[in-house]
Amino acid sequence: RTTHFGYQDVPVEEKAARVADVFHSVASRYDLMNDLMSFGVHRLWKRITLERAGVRPGHKVLDIAGGTGDLALKFSRLVGPEGKVVLADINASMLGVGRDKLIDHGVGGNVEFVQANAECLPFPDNTFDCITIAFGLRNVTDKDKALASMARILKPGGRLLVLEFSKPSNPMLTKAYDEYSFRLLPKMGELVAGDSESYRYLAESIRMHPDQETLKGMMESAGLERVEYTNLTGGIVALHRGIKL
Ligand code: SAM
Question: Is 31 among the annotated ligand-binding positions?
């Protein structure tokens, strides 16, 4: 069986190892590159995600593929001392950078760090009030399995938010964006992180990711209800939200 690694077909077992290499390689410069590559707009996309998450004091929240912890940091303030946030990621390097950043920000005892694969999350059924996955799903080999795993561990009434690159609604925007991501992005990766290959993978993985309607259908198949999405920045990114009833 093969799957996609960017535009390449690779054996299923190989994709996870290649994705791991990419994130080990970019971890220490990930935050800087994120700001440069998105001109800082990823902060706005994440702020909108936080607003739609509806997280309140006392809630239990999982940020899977949480990487360097931008969302987890904000959630830890929202849930307060009675709540709990789990920052989970498959990659030890990304998780390490995230943990250091949260400690630097004085985050206390309400955040737990867990190395886990989104496809088989090591938590009991009905655990979380909210789960987020931001710019993570496209890196997962079996996305349907991951969505089902997230649905299983949501509490009834809990919500899943998926923030991910998607399909721009305007062809002119698609053209400009292709130019940017296939030419400029690997160059920036080379200059700033000394690693054009990883950034080429990131650009290609964005193109291979399911579009808005396809992802909506996948979330419904995983058992989520009232699934809806909002296009951000002309559909370059979409925020999907579904509820477990
Ligand atoms: N959520 C963070 C953000 O928005 O800044 C990090 C996003 S980063 C582009 C993607 C993250 O997904 C990486 O930290 C990577 O290690 C993680 N990842 C990739 N495959 C995964 C999997 N199967 N399970 C959990 N995390 C995964």
Answer: no
Instruction: Give 40's pLDDT tier (boundaries 50, 70, 90).
Output: very high
Which residues, in sequence order, are CB contacts of 52 under 8 Å at separation 6+? 161, 230, 239, 241
Q: Is pTM, for the whole model, over 0.90?
A: yes
Is 68 annotated among the ligand-binding residues? yes
- Domain residue spans of the chain: 27-167+213-243
Contact partners, residue 176, CB within 8 Å, separation at least 6: none
Q: Is the ipTM of this complex over 0.95?
A: yes
The CA 139 to ligand 1 mean position distance, Å, reads 7
Shortest-distance Cα residue to atom 14 of ligand 1 = 67
Structural class in CATH, domain 27-167+213-243: alpha beta
Question: Rounded CA gap, 132 and 145, in Å?
Answer: 16
